[in-house]
Design a protein that fits this description.
homodimer; about 325 residues; alpha+beta; seven-stranded mixed β-sheet; 10 helices; 13 strands; about 25% strand
Chain lengths: ~325, ~325
């Protein structure tokens, strides 16, 4: 099967299938889309490489889902509504079963977010999936990393850490190993992450900064601190610990939550007078939102044991050494 | 060096360097750009993989140029003005000399076309360069593959075929081989192609369809014919044969021009009453534009020896068998 047949068979949508927002869709030199007047365009790109970002044994439908999810997550972190994406697929061979499953997983998530595949490119080579996603956001209302202010609360969505637990299970580093039902559940967190797209849009006007947790909660929060030129204190006892992580040793819980990444939850900051708005979002979305610390003027990231809001000279707050560092693709594997 | 340092050192521009059109640039979850009111957004994506699209020995500055050039060429074929691009770079290792040269070649061409690098992603893995480019075009004025009409002229820009001649020289298939000065010249055509961005914009309102020649003149013209539901006749004697190709056997000349690709010239169609407008563009741009055939209602592509415009039953027109087929990434190398 040739390149053009491949794209047409597996990735083009027929009338009535999926969103059709492109003025000119797949199959010309460019796709042409018409942004809504008054909106700005948010753009992000992410590549997944076999052996680096996913295991060669992963179910291709889940891989299709995840490849788009990590990109939608970047739009979520900017508060943007998804519009369209392009797909650059490098394949070692044309495996029709693989392509069928991969495209189904990819396009199902795309449909869910009304995000149209508007362009693509296939190449023979080692398996890699490159996606560039485009969304729109009202002019001047994108959520940035640079807006955090001293005094803001720090929040995290969902139950971070499960994806890392799954990865360590695959690596065989966990002692004791996971129970089968736990393994199945955390594997879903790793392979089928939910991009927090609706949360991101709901946080426009509520949050002062946001980022998605791809490389680890501490590392990604660090990006907010640097770009906002502020520091932070986190209360480890306030962190949400999922039922599956609660089965694990406490050091492992913290490793997974603070340094895990790959969950694609959002970390965001907002002033204390927005707590009710955040709680309203939590109710509306049915998504746990947990306050885990606060932004401070003093640079650096401080970790504490103790109770949230017992900040000022409370002897019950005990400092904890930060032994977690950010994941970096060129320093080592996560 | 970590991923973030790498991106910042080699790919971020400082104030006063390069275009700054992004509202929010590199370094957040998304870049945010504001399209000009009334314009539509043209988007295209292309990946270059080592061993497939370029030789491992290629000069990295030229590789940086070419990776962006092939994407700008897609914007040119739509008549769009470049705005911004994202870069997904997969690298086997962090080679600072390579990155310095690559980024210089890439960003020099980007500056020339006022096209800003607004997002990026680096990954460890086999060398591959994925670019998604965005441009803008007045609403409803994009050049499409689907607009060719029976009676239109068929034109090609520049001197197609030299890139293929260079590739065959690298492969050692040419007998006799190339003279050194010829090799140097055609190698430039292969490694430093000029995307016809200004021509594409000039063709808005003049051309009825356009495509860039990446896979071979006949194959790419075939896309216009299929999408426009028309056929065509080409006059082989009308093809532009560059000085370097003129040194070669005539069968090789035709192979390179008709099936070569990788030159990123434009093939376009326009009605005969636009010939003066095309000639005016040719003068204005200092770029050869050659009329090589015509669009016909009868499906299929017919090749002839003889003189242009001697169409109607002229016995001097001799049919030629089409022994050239389109390049296809999964059917074989070009």
């Amino acid at each position: 099967m040739g390149e053009f047949d491949l794209i047409e068979r597996y990735f083009w949508r027929r009338a009535g299938e999926g969103p059709h927002r492109a003025v000119i869709g797949n199959g010309d030199d460019c796709a042409v889309i018409a942004p809504t007047p008054g909106m700005q365009l948010a753009v992000s790109t992410d590549t997944l490489v076999e052996g680096r970002h996913f295991l060669s044994t992963v179910n291709p439908a889940r891989l299709g889902h995840k490849a788009l999810a990590v990109n939608l997550s970047d739009l979520a972190a900017c508060g943007a509504r998804p519009l369209a994406f392009t797909l650059a697929l490098t394949l070692p061979r044309v495996d029709q079963d693989w392509l069928s499953d991969f495209s189904q997983g990819l396009l199902a998530l795309a449909d869910e977010h009304d995000c149209e595949l508007i362009g693509g490119d296939t190449t023979a080579g080692p398996l890699a999936i490159g996606i560039t996603v485009m969304g729109e956001v009202p002019a001047g209302h994108a959520l940035l990393r640079s807006g955090a202010q001293a005094g803001d609360d720090i929040w995290v969505s969902g139950w971070p850490g499960e994806a890392r637990l799954a990865l360590e299970a695959f690596r065989g580093t966990l002692h004791p190993g996971l129970m089968p039902h736990t393994f199945d559940a955390v594997r879903m967190a790793m392979e089928l992450p939910t991009p927090r797209v609706t949360l991101g849009q709901g946080l426009r006007g509520v949050a002062t900064s946001a980022i998605d947790v791809s490389d680890g909660l501490l590392g990604d929060l660090g990006h907010i601190l640097r770009r906002s030129r502020v520091g932070a204190s986190l209360i480890l006892d306030a962190l949400p610990i999922s039922a599956h992580l609660q089965e694990r040793p406490s050091a492992e819980q913290l490793d997974c939550i603070l340094a895990g990444g790959d969950d694609y939850e959002l970390v965001f900051t907002s002033p204390p007078n927005q707590r009710e708005a955040v709680r309203a979002l939590e109710q509306q979305l049915g998504l746990l939102l947990t306050r885990i610390g606060r932004i401070e003027a003093e640079p650096g990231l401080r970790l504490w044991r103790g109770e949230l809001d017992q900040w000022e000279g409370d002897p019950a707050l005990k400092p904890v050494d930060n032994r977690w560092t950010s994941f970096d693709h060129f320093k080592g594997t996560p």
